[in-house]
Amino acid sequence: MADGKGMEKVDMSKEFSKLSEADKYFVRKLEQMNRDRAKDMKTLRRKNWMTALAIGTGVASIYFYSMYAVRQERFLADFDTVPEKK
Question: Where do the TM regions start and end (predicted)?
C-alpha cells in the first residue's frame, strides 16, 4: 500500500461456490447480522448526537442566562455607599 494503489479486489464468487450449502447459509446469516448491526449502530449514533445536542443546548442556555442574571444584579452598588450611623 506504500505505492498508493490500495488493496487488490478479491473475487469471492469463486470461493463462495466452493463452500458447502451449510457454510453458505452461515455466511449469508453472518452478512445479515452485520447489516442489522450496522443499521442499529447508525440509529444509535443518531440518537447519541441528538442527546449531545440537547445537553449542549441546555448547558449553553444555563451559562448565558447566568451571565445575563449576574450582569443585572446591582447589590454590590450598595457597598459603595457608607451607611449612616444612628
Answer: 49-68
